[in-house]
Design a protein that fits this description.
Elements lengths: L1 H5 L6 H33 L4 H49 L3 H6 L2 H23 L1 H19 L1 H48 L1 H6 L3 H26 L2 H25 L5 H43 L19 E8 L10 E8 L4 E6 L5 H6 L9 E6 L2 E2 L5 H6 L1 E4 L8 E2 H5 L8 H10 L3 H4 L9 E2 L8 H13 L5 E5 L7 H14 L4 E5 L11 E6 L2 E6 L1 H7 L1 H17 L5
Helix pairs in contact: 2-3, 2-6, 2-11, 3-5, 5-7, 5-11, 6-7, 6-11, 7-9, 7-10, 7-11, 10-11, 15-17, 19-20
Length: 581
Amino acid sequence: MIKKLMRSIREYKRDTILSPVFVTCEVILEVLIPFLMAKLIDNGITPGDMGYTIRMGLVLLVCAAASLGFGALSGLAASRASAGFAKNLRKDMFYHVQHFSFTNIDHFSTSSIVTRLTTDVTNIQNAFMMVIRIAVRAPIMLILSMFMAFQVNAELALVFLYVVPILAIGMYLIMTRAYPIFHRVFETYDKLNNVVGENLHGIRVVKSFVREEKEKQKFGDVSQAIYVDFYKAERLMAYIMPLMQFSIYTCLILLSWFGGKLVITTAMTTGELMTMFSYVIQILMSLMMLAMVTTMIAISKASTERVTELLDEQSDLHNGSNPIMAVADGSIEFQDVSFSYTGKTNKLCLSDVNLSIRSGETIGVIGGTGSSKSTLVQLIPRFYDATCGKVLVGGVDVRDYDVETLRNEVAMVLQKNTLFSGSIKDNLRWGNPNATDEEMQHACHLSRADEFIATFPKGYDTHIEQGGSNVSGGQRQRLCIARALLKKPKILILDDSTSAVDTRTDAMIRQAFLEEIPDTTKIIIAQRVSSVQDADRIIVLDGGRVNAVGTHEELLATNPIYREVYESQMKGDDDNAPAAQ
């Protein structure tokens, strides 16, 4: 787990190494200063030797300045190393997620991935900084201070050996109880991010249904759960400081009692006793720093496991050993295809699908809600792999293609149309980064997006808000269709992507497709029969199975499902028609 995370250090290895080196130099000087101070008191101040006092004072000044310098250098190196490590770790995680299949993404919630990329990485960054600095400083200072204390007076230094085990056992008991709580807190953070994300994404729905109070309650419940867990953990951690103070004061009292007797009997000098006081502070402060590091590591351990879990997730979609780098044409064939999102054959969404679509055909797909229309077309660009059977594009199994090559030849406008913050041009160039203004205008003409773009003061430079919130549903759909057309694909899939467009505009878009891209295979999923009735063939899906395939006229004559849908929609149109005057 740690080895996997350490790969993200990369170009910051130098700073990662230099920080503990500088810390070591700083600690050596800090431990040496009390020893030199004892020499100053015993050999300079007490006998009144001003020359020795000045010389030793200058030496102490140089040591203090050098210690300060090494401390500053260590801090700078640790800051660069930890910030760079966190930057690389976030980058590695985000790039790794980009290669996930839809199955992998379904394994993690969106809010969970966001938490891992933000809060968890920040926790790991803080722990990393402490490890390369404090975790190096504390044990070295503990060992050197203990060594120097025994050099000054071995009998008096035994006081530490009685106090340190008590402190260590107490800290261990606290941390073992706090860690499970911290682990639970970060899982609750996922829920909090999910609640906030859903609320902000669907704020218009929340307000239209006057559900603000319900959303506040949901947020309050999750926030309260985080508060309760953090309170429990922090209550446990609060015992560390009293325990530390108890240890410090116990050592000081014992040193004062026994050290005072030794000074009176001239078995120990005043300077040596002061040195022992300095070392007890250094020893116990190093233990306090170890407690801080232990706390941060306990908090980050849960984050480390969550980040590693994301990095360990392997995409179930990958290229073969010799992937095919070109798609011959837009023909599509389903051979005994069955599919399950869980991979289990007893929970199939699609069953025994056999279809053959010629390149350049216009195919309509219709069926009731839950009939797996979207699932069917998502197998074509290999968003998912078929559980059983084969999906062929251009006569080749989609699993034999280079994934990027295949998806570049399949343009798909999904049910949930997504636009990104930026100009209209920026969004259109997702389809073709090198598209000229003329190509963008032509694509928008085919999708009939040019009609409303012309009404914007800034035209194609109009800014689109995140998610396309400042344009209507129909406008968003037409922009997404134009974006797909700019790919100049061999296969174009419209997954109910004209549902927010009026029937006149829908018909104009379909006519433009027929005239302008006759060689592109077009698959149109729709709820309205009028959107697919001019297709070369129409596929009727029912319960994840192909119920019938035929032209509009053939299905009206032979298929009861299609006829029922057609008649219900025609009756609805008749009922909504204005009465004769």
